Amino acid sequence: MYVSFDRARYCVRHLNGTHEIGCQSSMRGNSGRMYMIDNETEFSSYLKDSKTIDSSNSFIIVLNVELFNSEYVDKLMNRLDSKLNGLVIYLKSNLSRPKDFSQDDQCPNHRRSYYLNQTETVNWNSKGTGLFFRSFPFPIVILDEKDDYERLDKFYRQFYNTQSSPTCGLEVKAFQSAAHTSKTCMRRNEISHSLLDAVDGFCDPVGGLNIYSKLPDSLTLVPKQRQPKSVVLILATTDNFQMFLKAQGTTGGAQQPATALITFLALA
Questions:
Q1: Deepest of 34, 75, 254, 262, by most Cβ within 10 A of its Cβ?
Q2: Strands (E), the chain
Q3: In terms of DSSP bridges, do strands 14-15 and 84-90 run parallel, antiparallel, or are they unpaired?
């Protein structure tokens, strides 16, 4: 019996000048025995259950979004080691969200700060997990639709049995061809385009749009010649970054655009 979930958000592989971050599956997908963990009690019991862990060579853990943070992910990776073949994070309804979560660092942008030699003393994003900047050797996906969670839960409760075989299994396909560094991957793009005439490359550059606007002429005086240093530009960041994307449609990211909007409203 097979049940497909085609609305999942998947963790994306990102590259920079020195290494890669994010996550992905193998080319044929990652598969493993399904194990569902809904709360801290079930989490602790699973880590102590050597019999269950030893019963399979690979697991895909289905984890409540409330447990998706660095602490629990690290515990799973340390306990299962190479047996951890993927994570499926679930929300119980479309409107439910964790009490607090941030994929960013506790001190955002500290890696690119002008003061790189200074110690991080102010962690103003106290709920930051830093998960966005880590590299995982397995895929991570999120199911955020209520009916998807209900189908998954029903399937698991109906067929999962620790005493019988076969048991419930999952397969996650989220293969991405980007690897190594941005420079290396873009060079591979050029080679594939020139030799193979390929339309799709190994990776895409991260980019965006600059939006420019000015006050209406009715609110401004337009002199024949502007005086030096008489023009004021108000610039604000309106982009965001996100750890998970949907195959189709738009996805929200970290709430950086709200900061820019508040700044403009305050100046107005």
A1: 34
A2: 9-11, 14-15, 20-21, 30-37, 59-64, 84-90, 140-143, 169-172, 244-246
A3: unpaired
- Phi and psi dihedrals of 263, rounded to 5? -60, -45
Separation between Cα atoms, residue 198 and residue 194, nearest integer Å: 8
| Residue 17 near residue 183 (C-beta atoms within 8 A) | yes
Sign of the Cα pseudo-torsion (148, 149, 150, 153, in order): positive
Distance CA 63, CA 73 (A): 10
Report yes or no on whether pTM surpasses 0.85.
no
Q: How far apart are CA 24 and CA 199, in angstroms?
A: 22
How would you write the pLDDT of the chain (268 residues) with one tens digit per residue?
677 888 889 999 999 888 899 999 999 999 999 999 999 999 999 999 999 999 899 999 999 999 999 999 999 999 999 999 999 999 998 777 788 888 888 888 777 767 767 776 778 888 889 999 999 999 999 998 999 999 999 888 887 765 566 678 999 999 988 878 988 888 888 776 666 655 567 888 877 777 777 776 665 566 667 778 877 777 777 777 788 887 665 666 655 566 667 777 777 6
3-class secondary-structure state, position 188: helix
Alpha-carbon separation of residue 98 from 51, 67, 90, 94, 108 (angstroms): 31, 9, 11, 12, 20
* Amino acid code (one letter) for 47: L
For the chain, domain boundaries:
9-175, 180-206
CA nearest to 253, candidates 186, 208, 199? 208
Please state, in angstroms and rounded to a whole number, the distance separating the CA atoms of residues 243 and 10.
8
